[in-house]
């Protein structure tokens, strides 16, 4: 059954909550890998890291295989822990400024063509509705922060490594994963004044279930099997993003339906916009 077949009026997923008095400041939290971009952000940089002598050819091949498995089936908690151990061991001793320089020089070539057009449009719509946009990722902050800036996000929260004398020690100061994401979101919400019951969150992975549960408006994007099952059981929207496109090639403005509205996007107007097909799929899975 699709949304149009259900018989009951459909609530607009981007509709701002009814409030009295001063407007409520809210946010939309986005996981990064396979939610906003089509690959693992960390593994995507294997080639430039190899070109700069940071990793070996064997490591590049292992990273490519890990990327393939990640795209094929996602990653559960155990796999994420193994990936964290692998990546922290790999980057031990790397110069932080060199990593930042590589990311800055290759970001446009490596990552921006992987951004889902649907995600970019959804981010633009949330911003038009007056919401902050926050990228929340288990990848390192040296990678996540530049991507978040390119997307026009308000904040970025990511894994932080311990640094001594300008080099990574191989220890993790903060792991932005699972309950760690929830901790970061709660701290930011307290600092910025976001009522989480009025906030939104998007992810592809069952490992982000805690992040989705902490907000009032969760949605699954390209979900793995476990998250799809959970989303269906809880009647959460299930969105399909499938069009990676360079940020340079997409229209920088919000989607047509969002432009046609003011602070609140009407459901009928949104039906004519770029997000219609994905929003109406919530009952089709």
TrEMBL record:
<keyword id="KW-0378">Hydrolase</keyword>
<dbReference type="InterPro" id="IPR050582">
    <property type="entry name" value="HAD-like_SerB"/>
</dbReference>
<keyword id="KW-0479">Metal-binding</keyword>
<comment type="similarity">
    <text>Belongs to the HAD-like hydrolase superfamily. SerB family.</text>
</comment>
<keyword id="KW-0812">Transmembrane</keyword>
<dbReference type="InterPro" id="IPR023214">
    <property type="entry name" value="HAD_sf"/>
</dbReference>
<keyword id="KW-0460">Magnesium</keyword>
<dbReference type="GO" id="GO:0016787">
    <property type="term" value="F:hydrolase activity"/>
</dbReference>
<feature type="transmembrane region" description="Helical">
    <location>
        <begin position="257"/>
        <end position="280"/>
    </location>
</feature>
<feature type="region of interest" description="Disordered">
    <location>
        <begin position="1"/>
        <end position="21"/>
    </location>
</feature>
<dbReference type="Pfam" id="PF12710">
    <property type="entry name" value="HAD"/>
</dbReference>
<feature type="compositionally biased region" description="Polar residues">
    <location>
        <begin position="1"/>
        <end position="14"/>
    </location>
</feature>
<keyword id="KW-0472">Membrane</keyword>
<keyword id="KW-1133">Transmembrane helix</keyword>
<dbReference type="InterPro" id="IPR006385">
    <property type="entry name" value="HAD_hydro_SerB1"/>
</dbReference>
<protein>
    <submittedName>
        <fullName>Inhibition of morphological differentiation protein</fullName>
    </submittedName>
</protein>
<dbReference type="InterPro" id="IPR036412">
    <property type="entry name" value="HAD-like_sf"/>
</dbReference>
<dbReference type="GO" id="GO:0046872">
    <property type="term" value="F:metal ion binding"/>
</dbReference>
